[in-house]
Amino acid sequence: MISATLTHSRTTLPLTWRFWFVAPMVVALASVVLFPTVYLFWMSAQHWLVIDPDVYFNGVDNYSRLLFSNDLWQSIRVTGIYLLFSTGVMLAMGLGLALSFSNAAKSGWLRVLVVMPLVIPPVVAGFTWRFLLNGEMGFIGAFLLPSIGFEANMLANPTGAMASIVIADVWSRTPFIFLILLAALQGVPRELYEAARMDGATTIDEFFNITLPMLRGAIIVAVLFRLVDAINTFELIFVMTKGGPGRSTQVLSIFGWRTAFQELDFGQAAALGVLMLAMALTVAVLMFRRFLRSAEGR
Fold first, then answer.
1. Is 53 contained in some domain?
2. What ranges in 70-154 are assigned the alpha helix state H?
3. Tens-place pLDDT, residues 137-175
4. What total of structural domains would you count in the chain?
5. Which of 51, 62, 118, 216 is positioned for an S-S bond with 175, CB 3.0–4.6 A?
6. Are residues 109 and 170 in the same domain?
7. pLDDT digits (tens, 9 = 90+) for 89-134
């Protein structure tokens, strides 16, 4: 009787009251998402230099100057290298850890240790790895690497700096990939593996014919979240290298910071923000479509 009363009240609730119930959520969402986005687009079409008191509409001038800037294409190249290596290593390590822990009966404390880097803020992770890789007093940079014959300061040369931020990022974000893949792996029916073993399948056969196909959707989702997150990575790289040495680790977010707070060109920095938003949305849409096709194929 109570359920019938609730159903009747829900169906007879006036439309205006339903609107007022969801209005706070709509207002909050518009405040934290819609307004900053609209303001960003507005800024990108303004001539806004801190050293110039005149702020006026200049159309697509910020975008045209940005697209013809060598720094933009350098930053896109660096971002692509960073995304390729960090995402690839994260996916391989996350999948390996998920497979290692999927059948472990008593591995609760080990899982806690593996996931622990995920709760450490990127700023703290950046400072930690910066000190570890320091060529003068860091344990890795000043003692461990020289002991095996590697004398170069990793943070002082372009290749070493890129490798350093990839290592720090992989250490910090791999647990996220691990959790997604572990949850998906535990949802794979055990009967599939039992039937494969009865047919004489090896471990490698099980991996390529059962595990990978069943994890395809989870892998796509993990890579999607990772790519969108990596495009906006700022704190860890800023703390470790600030885009240096030179421009060797200047990803798009660091380029935006330099444009806004060193060159004091807020208009062009906003235009870069719009381009980064378009890139992130494009990646998200492509990966989401790929996920839908994968789900339909399954």
1. no
2. 70-102, 108-115, 122-132, 145-147
3. 888 888 888 888 787 788 888 899 999 999 999 999 999
4. 2
5. 118
6. yes
7. 999 999 999 888 876 655 677 778 888 898 899 999 999 999 999 8
